[in-house]
């Protein structure tokens, strides 16, 4: 089947300090290349996991795909329609089908609004529920996420973290979207609550026929929820492939390093241990060539000069590393 979402060469650049003061001070403008020509697709019904250290551009990528941030260049095709440059009014209508669940349910819920108002607001904004029907739709959605109609009149502070995330999920799903970005949806929750929310997201996906782009820095979470995984480093996807293959036998040194930092999940895994040294370089001054070369134990001369391209690396998998090109050539 054709992909639900097809992203090609997506670029998102921010120009920082190019304001008047900086021009007067003659500081050079700084460029933050948050998403650096990224391509991937998501099949209907699939969960694509997106993993990487914080600051690698995962959230910016997801928000740019939803056009909550404007793309600098590239293309985003959603359900066969190029949405990269459609007018915002048209995008607003489409947003019913593309929603996002945020990391911090508390920060993303208006503390002065009741649950009924919060979850009902998208329906009201999009004018898709008749007057008398709004409350019923909210109650039905609350039931879907494990809350009760008795919760309608309560405010966010009256709920636990897990319940608040349930409210955030209800708000995201009330418009019947087909594609949902889950941006670190359990990272702010206690470990005991994380499993409940992950299970709920899985149930809702099956029952409502959803497709997820699931962002997390936690490999355990990503391994559990994803059909395929994309690994991001400083604005690039460096490896992408089916979850089991990628976690059991990663190809890219960065993926190996990420996995080496956590205990072996699978006894049959053939993972080579790679120690991740040093901090993530500033995305304002990314290293030349392969951006990972400053931390890669296998770095060669060519790595400092030339950026490796994402190329086929086994069935349904892609990776960007000069080592793999050498292996394939040999
Ligand atoms: Fe390491 Fe070179 Fe591969 Fe980059 S291209 S991951 S520096 S071996
Ligand atoms: Mg983030």
UniProtKB/TrEMBL annotation:
Membrane topology summary: Peripheral membrane protein
Domain of life: Bacteria
Pfam families xrefs: ABC_tran (PF00005), oligo_HPY (PF08352)
Record key words, sorted: ATP-binding, Nucleotide-binding, Transport
GO biological process, one term: peptide transport
GO cellular component terms given for this protein: plasma membrane
Gene Ontology molecular functions: ATP binding; ATP hydrolysis activity
SMART domains: AAA
Database matches in SUPFAM superfamilies: P-loop containing nucleoside triphosphate hydrolases (SSF52540)
Keyword ATP-binding part of the UniProt annotation: yes
Name under which the protein is recorded: Peptide/nickel transport system ATP-binding protein/oligopeptide transport system ATP-binding protein
Family: Belongs to the ABC transporter superfamily.
Domain ABC transporter: 5-259
Subcellular location(s) of the protein: Cell inner membrane
Record organism: Chelatococcus asaccharovorans
Main location: membrane
PROSITE patterns: ABC_TRANSPORTER_1 (PS00211), ABC_TRANSPORTER_2 (PS50893)
């Amino acid at each position: 089947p054709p992909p639900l979402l097809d992203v090609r060469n997506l670029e998102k650049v921010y120009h920082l300090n190019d304001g008047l003061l900086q021009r007067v001070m003659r500081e050079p403008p700084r460029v933050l290349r948050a998403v650096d020509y990224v391509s991937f697709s998501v099949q209907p019904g699939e969960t694509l996991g997106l993993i990487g250290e914080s600051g690698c551009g995962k959230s910016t990528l997801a928000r740019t795909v939803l056009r909550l941030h404007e793309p600098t260049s590239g293309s985003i095709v959603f359900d066969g329609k190029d949405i990269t440059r459609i007018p915002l009014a048209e995008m607003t209508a489409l947003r019913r089908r593309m929603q996002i669940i945020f990391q911090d349910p508390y920060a993303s819920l208006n503390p002065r609004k009741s649950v009924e108002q919060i979850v009902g607001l998208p329906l009201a904004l999009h004018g898709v529920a008749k007057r008398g029907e709004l409350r019923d739709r909210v109650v039905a959605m609350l039931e879907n996420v494990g809350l009760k109609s008795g919760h309608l009149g309560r405010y966010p502070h009256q709920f636990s973290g897990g319940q608040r995330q349930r409210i955030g999920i209800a708000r995201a799903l009330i418009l019947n979207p087909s594609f949902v970005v889950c941006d670190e949806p359990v990272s702010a929750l206690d470990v005991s609550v994380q499993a409940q929310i992950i299970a709920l997201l899985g149930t809702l996906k099956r029952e409502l026929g959803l497709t997820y782009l699931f962002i997390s820095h936690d490999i355990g979470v990503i391994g559990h929820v994803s059909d395929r995984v994309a690994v991001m480093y400083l604005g690039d996807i460096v490896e992408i492939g089916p979850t089991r293959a990628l976690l059991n036998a990663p190809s890219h040194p960065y993926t190996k390093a990420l996995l080496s930092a956590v205990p072996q999940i699978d006894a049959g895994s053939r993972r080579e241990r790679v120690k991740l040294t040093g901090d993530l370089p500033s995305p304002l001054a990314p290293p030349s060539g392969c951006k990972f070369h400053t931390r890669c134990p296998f770095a060669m001369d060519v790595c400092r000069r030339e950026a490796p391209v994402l190329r086929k690396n086994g069935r349904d998998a892609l990776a960007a590393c000069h080592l793999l090109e050498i292996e394939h050539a040999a």
